[in-house]
Amino acid sequence: MLYRTVGQFKTSYHADHALFPVKQDAWLLGFILLIAFVVLPATANEFVFNALLIPVLVYALAALGLNILTGYAGQLSLGTGAFMGVGAYACYKLVTIFPELNIVVAIALSGFFSAAVGVAFGLPSLRIKGFYLAIATLAAQFFLVWLFEKWAWLYNYNSSGAIQVPNIDMFGLTVAGPNAKAVVQYYFVLCVVCLITWFAINITRGRIGRIWKSVRDMDIAAELVGINLMKAKLSAFAVSSYIVGVAGALFVFLWRGAAEPVLFDIPLSFRVLFIVIIGGMGSILGNYLGAVLIVALPVLISFVPGALGLPVSSAMVEHLNTMIVGATIIGFLILEPHGLARLWAIIREKLVIWPFPH
Amino acid sequence: MNSRAEPLIIVAPDDGIPAGDLLMDVKNVSLSFGGVKAITDISFNVRKGEIRAIIGPNGAGKTSMLNVINGFYTPQKGTIVFRGEERRAMKPHHAVRQGIARTFQNVALFKGMSTLDNIMAGRSVMMKRNLFWQMFWHGPALREEIEHREKVEEIIDFLEIQHIRRTPVGKLPYGLQKRVELGRALAMEPSLLLLDEPMAGMNLEEKEDMSRFIIDVNRQRGTTIALIEHDMGVVMDLSDRVVVLDYGKKIADGTPDAVKSNQNVIDAYLGVAH
Amino acid sequence: EDAVNVTNLSYRTGPFAATGTPLMNGQRDYMLMLNERDGGVNGVKLVYDECETGYNTEKGAECYEKTKGSSIVTQPWSTGITLQVLPKSNVDKIPILAPGYGFSPMSDGKVFQWAFNPPASYWDGASMILKNISEGNLDSLKGKKIVLLHLDAPYGKEPIPLLQAYAEKYGFTLLPIPVGVKEMQNQSAQWLQIRRERPDFVLMWGWGAMNVGAVTEAAKTKFPMDKFVGIWWSGHDGDMKSVGEAGKGYRSISWSLPHSESSVMQDIKKYVLDAKKAEIGEGEFDWVFYQRGVLISMFTVEGIKAAQAHFNTKVVSAEQLRWGLENLKLDEAALKAIGMDGMIAPFSTACNNHAGHAGGWMLQWDGAKFVKVSDHITADAEMIDPLVQTEAKKYAEANAPWPINEECKM
Amino acid sequence: MDFLNSILVKPFADMAGAPDFLLQVLWEGLVAGVLYALIALGFVLIYKSSRIFNFAQGIMVVFAALTLVGLHEKGVPALLAVPLTLLVMFILAVVIERVVLRPLVNQPDMILFMATIGITLFLVGFGEIIFGGENKVMITEQLYIPTGSIEFEPFGGFVSIEQKDVTAVVGAILLVAGLILFLNRSKMGRAIRALGDDHQAALSVGISLSTIWVLVWFIAGVIALVTGIVWGARAGVSFALEVIAFKALPVLMLGGLESVLGAIVGGLAIGILEKLFEIYWGQPLLGGNTETWFAFVFALIVLLFRPQGLFGERIIERV
Amino acid sequence: MTNAAPQSEPATPILSVNNIEVIYDHVILVLKGVSLTVPKGGITALLGANGAGKTTTLKAISNLLHAERGEVTKGTIVFEGDEIQSLSPNQLVRRGCIQVMEGRHCFGHLSVEDNLMTGAFTRRDGAAAIRADLDLVYEYFPRLKVRRTSQAGYTSGGEQQITAIGRALMSKPKMILLDEPSMGLAPQLVEEIFEIVKKLNEEQGVSFLLAEQNTNIALRYAKYGYILESGRIVLDGEAQALRENEDVKEFYLGVAGEGRKSFKDVKHYKRRKRWLA
Ligand SMILES: Nc1ncnc2c1ncn2[C@@H]1O[C@H](COP(=O)(O)OP(=O)(O)OP(=O)(O)O)[C@@H](O)[C@H]1O
Ligand SMILES: Nc1ncnc2c1ncn2[C@@H]1O[C@H](COP(=O)(O)OP(=O)(O)OP(=O)(O)O)[C@@H](O)[C@H]1O
Ligand SMILES: [Mg+2]
Ligand SMILES: [Mg+2]
Question: Which positions, given as ranges, span the membrane (chain A) (predicted)?
Answer without folding.
Answer: 26-43, 49-69, 76-95, 101-123, 130-148, 184-203, 234-255, 261-281, 288-308, 320-341
